[in-house]
Amino acid sequence: MAYIGMRTPKFWPITTRTDGSAITYGTPVVIGPAVSANVTFDTADNPDYGDDIIIDNDKGVNGYSIALETNDISKEARAACLGWEAKQNTSTPPAVTHYEVTDAEPPEGGLSYIRVKMFKGTRKYEAFFFHALQFSDGGENASTKQKQITWNHPTMNATGIGVYIDSSGKAKYFNWMEFDSESAATTWINSQAGYTPPQNNG
């Protein structure tokens, strides 16, 4: 088995989050062409000893972080994920919109993407849906063009939030499912967010 691809990272703005109830999401925003997503789990490690051996241990997941790299991040995605504020200058025609980075807290949202894998010549599509997280900018870098180009991609870092979305009393972090087609994976992701895509009548 080998992972051979990643596709379509989307940010799902949270409109309502109440403990014990399903989260409601707004219209998703495509962040940019996928390059990589590295998920790191924060797990407890608290052994309880007795008679010179471990009697019990707590290895539960306390949270997670994601380092997301894309080929580009659209201005709409920066506004949605990072809370950049769009401002329009109308004093000097033509009107120009710029974005302000402030000390405002970045909005909470969900994250989805599809990972492609190959096993014995057959492709499978793994769908990931992270219920709630907050992004931060991975930084801004610029360098001169030289004889050989080094491709640089924008990054964002996310901190996962444990959410109580049902009556189980368990904090939930993300859902995962495997499919035979990309379209089936996309349909499942939309269902996780309770989202119905607009119909294309063209």
Textual characterization of the structure:
By secondary structure, this protein is mostly beta strands. Strand 10 and strand 11 (122-137) form a beta hairpin. The longest helix has 11 residues, at 182-192. The strands form 3 sheets. Strands 1, 2, 3, 4, 7, 10, 11, 12 and 13 form a 9-stranded antiparallel β-sheet that branches. It has helices spanning 75-82, 182-192, and strands spanning 2-16, 24-25, 29-30, 34-43, 48-50, 53-56, 61-70, 85-89, 96-100, 108-119, 122-137, 155-160, 174-179. Helix content is 9%, strand content 48%.
Short recap of the structure:
The chain is mostly beta strands. The protein contains two helices and 13 strands. The chain has one domain.
Key descriptive features of the protein:
202 residues, mainly beta, 2 helices, 9% helix
**CA-CA gap between termini:** 39 Å
How many β-strands, per DSSP?
Answer: 13
Structural class: mainly beta
Mean pLDDT: 90
Instruction: Show unreliable segments.
Output: none
- Please tell me what the overall shape is: globular
- What's the helix-strand series? EEEEEEEHEEEEEEH
Biggest beta sheet attributes: 9 strands, antiparallel
Radius of gyration: 20 Å
Beta content: over 45%
Total of DSSP H or I helical runs spanning 4+ residues: 2
Structural domain tally: 1
The helix content, as a percent range, equals under 10%
Write the layout of secondary structure elements.
Layout: E1 2-16, E2 24-25, E3 29-30, E4 34-43, E5 48-50, E6 53-56, E7 61-70, H1 75-82, E8 85-89, E9 96-100, E10 108-119, E11 122-137, E12 155-160, E13 174-179, H2 182-192
Antiparallel strand pairs: 1-2, 1-3, 1-10, 4-7, 5-6, 7-12, 8-9, 10-11, 11-12, 11-13
